[in-house]
């Protein structure tokens, strides 16, 4: 059953961090995995620490050259609307128009980063196949760290962390979107006794906190679907000819 994201507010975290376990079913998860893995080879971009697919258009500092999202991604839009994920962001835009698909093999991660000014301040991530621990670092300045660039915060301990399980939805909004960086360590096993993981009760139901903290979770291949709204969009012709 779809739930309102307000019911998934992570206690102890800054405002506007929401975690909903089992946002999609096992069958829906497998369908999405199959769609990602059978996408045309040219859709994959290979980076040093992961590979990714870009859906919805090419995002630039001044907006996005827009193209329609495929149906297998827009099928999640009614659930986002029912849950209130993108409510209140914009007078007319209430559905995501961009999705970044990342595939992380065990041991792969991403340096602390912010998502940048092209997006409205809400990001909704659906996770598939494996867990990860997302770590949050307070930005030392108002500057925008470049995606995947080295950051001084990597030498610091995270302020808090979220255990993200398969089929869950993680939503970051408002201040936590704007003033925190988030990243994933490049390790193969997560020791839940380490770090300030705030949502163990929700991410590992049926287990008390002492038992949960004693767990060590081995990572597999994780696929993340990161949905956002780009406010400024144009057709390819308008970008090329300035019309």
TrEMBL record:
Pfam families named in the record: 2OG-FeII_Oxy_2
Keyword DNA-binding attributed: no
Keyword terms of this UniProt record: Dioxygenase, Iron, Metal-binding, Nucleus, Oxidoreductase
Keyword Transmembrane included in the entry's annotation: no
Coiled coil regions, renumbered to chain: none
InterPro entries, alphabetized: AlkB-like (IPR027450), AlkB-like_sf (IPR037151), ALKBH6 (IPR032862), Oxoglu/Fe-dep_dioxygenase_dom (IPR005123)
Record's GO cellular component terms: nucleus
Protein name listed in UniProt: Fe2OG dioxygenase domain-containing protein
Upper classification of the organism: Eukaryota, Fungi, Fungi incertae sedis, Mucoromycota, Mortierellomycotina
């Amino acid at each position: 059953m779809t739930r309102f994201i307000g019911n998934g507010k992570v206690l102890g975290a800054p405002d506007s961090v929401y975690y909903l376990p089992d946002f999609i079913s096992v069958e829906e998860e497998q369908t999405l995995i199959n769609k990602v893995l059978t996408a045309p080879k040219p859709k994959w971009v290979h980076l040093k620490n992961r590979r990714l697919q870009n859906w919805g258009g090419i995002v630039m500092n001044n907006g996005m050259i827009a193209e329609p999202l495929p149906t297998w991604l827009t099928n999640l839009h009614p659930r986002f609307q029912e849950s209130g994920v993108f409510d209140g962001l914009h007078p007319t835009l209430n559905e995501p128009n961009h999705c970044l698909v990342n595939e992380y093999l065990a041991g792969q991660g991403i340096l602390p980063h912010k998502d940048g000014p092209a997006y409205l301040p809400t990001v909704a991530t659906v996770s598939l196949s494996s867990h990860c621990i997302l770590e949050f670092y307070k930005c030392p300045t108002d500057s925008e760290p470049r995606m995947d660039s080295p950051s001084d915060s990597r030498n610091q301990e995270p302020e808090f962390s979220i255990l993200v399980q398969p089929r869950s939805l993680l939503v970051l909004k408002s201040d936590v979107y704007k003033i925190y960086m988030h990243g994933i360590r490049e390790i193969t096993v997560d020791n839940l006794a380490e770090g300030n993981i705030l949502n163990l009760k929700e991410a590992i139901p049926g287990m008390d906190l002492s038992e949960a903290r004693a767990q060590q979770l081995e990572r597999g291949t994780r696929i993340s679907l990161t949905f956002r709204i780009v406010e400024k969009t144009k057709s390819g012709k308008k970008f090329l000819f300035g019309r």
